[in-house]
Amino acid sequence: MATNNERQIAERRIDGEAFVLPAATIAGESLCAADSEVCSRICNAATGETIGWQQHATAAMVDRAVHAAHDALIAWRHTTPAARGKLLRKIAELVEADRARLAAMQMQVSGKPPFEADLDVSDTIATFNYYAGLCEDASAFAAEAVAVPDDALLAERVHEPVGVAALIVPWNFPMVTTAWKLAPALAAACTVVIKPSELTSPTEHMLAAIVSEAGVPDGVVNVVNGGGDVGAWLTTHPLVDKISFTGSTASGRKVMQAAAQDMKRLTLELGGKSALVVREDADVAQAVSLAVGGAFTNAGQMCSATARILVHDNVYRKFMAAFETAVRAVLVAPPQVADAAMGPLISAAQHARVAALVAQGVEAGAQIAFAGQLDPACADGFFMAPVVIAEPAADNVLWTDEIFGPVACVKSFRSDDEAIAIANDTRYGLVATVVTGDEKAARRYKAQLRAGLVWVNTPQLIFPQVCWGGFGVSGIGRELGVAGLRSYQELRHTVGLRG
Ligand code: NAD
C-alpha cells in the first residue's frame, strides 16, 4: 500500500504515463478516494516499473456499492432470459473487438507471454458466449413440473436469482476469473459488486467499462477496489446474499466464517496441490509436455498447477532426462521477447515468498534435480527460473504446500494403487492429470483420483460447459456449466391444487 506521500508522487506521474484508477465504480459513476485514503502500486511484473496506482475503496463506498446493487435488483430480476442473453452476447462481442488492448494490458501488468494473455481474452469471450447461449435457450430458467403422487396437485420447481452477489477475485487470471463469476451471475439475474485484486485491477476496469457499453443498466454491476479489508467489508455486508470467492484457502476460511453470520450463499474456489501421474505405458514425450504445461504455465501461479508429478519407476529415468531437456528449453522472458514461454511472478512479495519456500524445502532436505534459466532480458522483473525437485520427503513443504510459483516435485511409484494413494494424500482436491496408453487404467484413475476435474492425456483444457471446482480444502461448489448458473439461483418449489 502506498503512503499519502507516495500518492502525491503518483499523481505527479500522471503527466508521464502512470495512471490512477478510481476507488470504485458504482451505478455507472467513478468514485475517487479522498487524499487521506490508501492506494496501491500497480507494477509491470516483467520490469518492476510502476505503471499505475489503484485507489482503495472506503467502507462507505462498499456500503454504497452494495445498496446500488440492491436497488438495481428490483428491475433487473424481472428482465427476461432473452434480454439478458442479448446483453451477454454483446459483452462477448465487445471483448472480442477489444481483444488486442485487453491482451496488451494483461501482458503489461502480469508480464504474461502473448499466447497466455490472448488465451485469457478467449476464455473470457467463451464464458460470456456460453451463458448467453443458456439465456437464449431459456429452458434452464423455465418452471419445471415435479411429479407428485396426487393427480389433483400441481408441483413446480423454479430457479430464482439469489440476489446481490459479491464477486471477489485474485490476481493470477484477472478478467477470466471475473468472467466465470460475472457471466453466470448476470444470466441468473443477480446484481453484483466485484472486488478485483488490487495488483491486477486494470483489466477489470476495462471489463466493467465494456459491460456498461454493452447496455447493462447502471447499478447491476459495481466495482470496489482494494485489498482484503475491502473484501471483508463486502463479505460482512447484510445486503449481500451470495459470495463467490476465488483465492487462497486461508482467505477462504475467513470468508466462510464471515458468510456464516447471515447464512450467505457461498462458492469458494481455493488452492490446490494437484498430481500428474505418468504410467509405465505413457507416451513419455507427451507426459513431459503435459508436465511442463501443468507445472509452469503462468509461472506456476495456477490453483490447478500439477506440481506433484508421479512417474512409474520403469520410465522414471527416461522421463527425468526428457523433462530436464524440456525445462532447460523453457524461455523465461518478458512478453516482448519472441517465443517467450514463461513470464514473471506477479510481485516482488510473491517472488520472495516462493524463494523462501524453496529455501525452506531445501533446508529440510529436498534436492533440486535441475532448474531452468532466465533470459538476459529478465534482469529487472520478478522472474524465477523453473525448479524441479526429485523425490522430496512426504512431509517436505515443497511436496505438501501450495507454492504458487514455478516449482515442481517428482516422485516415483511402482503400482497404480501406490500412485492413487500418493495422489490422494492431500487435503486439496482441485484437478489431476493421468498419462496412460491403457483405457481401462484411465477409467480407474478417473474414478479414484479425488479431484473436481481429471484430465486424461490432455493439457489442462477448460471449457465453459465443464464445471470447475474442487474437493476438500480446494473449495465448495462449482463454477462454469449449468451448476455455475445454479450457484447464483435459489430453488423454489410450489405445490397447489390444479386449476
Ligand atoms: P488471496 O486469498 O490473498 O486473495 C484473493 C482475493 O481475496 C483478493 O481480491 C483479496 O484482496 C481478497 N481477500 C483477501 N482476504 C480477504 C478476506 N478476509 N475477505 C474477503 N476478501 C479477501 O489470494 P491471492 O494471493 O490473490 O491468489 C492466489 C490464491 O488463489 C491461490 O491460493 C490460488 O490457488 C487461489 N486460486 C484459486 C482458483 C480456483 O479456481 N480454485 C483460481 C485462481 C486462484
UniProtKB/TrEMBL annotation:
InterPro entries: Ald_DH/histidinol_DH (IPR016161), Ald_DH_C (IPR016163), Ald_DH_CS_CYS (IPR016160), Ald_DH_CS_GLU (IPR029510), Ald_DH_N (IPR016162), Aldehyde_DH_dom (IPR015590)
Protein name, entry field: Betaine-aldehyde dehydrogenase
Keyword Oxidoreductase: yes
Homology family: Belongs to the aldehyde dehydrogenase family.
Organism encoding this protein: Paraburkholderia silvatlantica
Gene Ontology MF: a single term: betaine-aldehyde dehydrogenase (NAD+) activity
Enzyme class: oxidoreductase
Domain Aldehyde dehydrogenase: 40-493
Residues annotated as the enzyme's active site: E269
Enzyme Commission (EC) number: 1.2.1.8
Pfam families registered for this protein in UniProt: Aldedh
Gene3D superfamilies: Aldehyde Dehydrogenase, Chain A, domain 1, Aldehyde Dehydrogenase, Chain A, domain 2
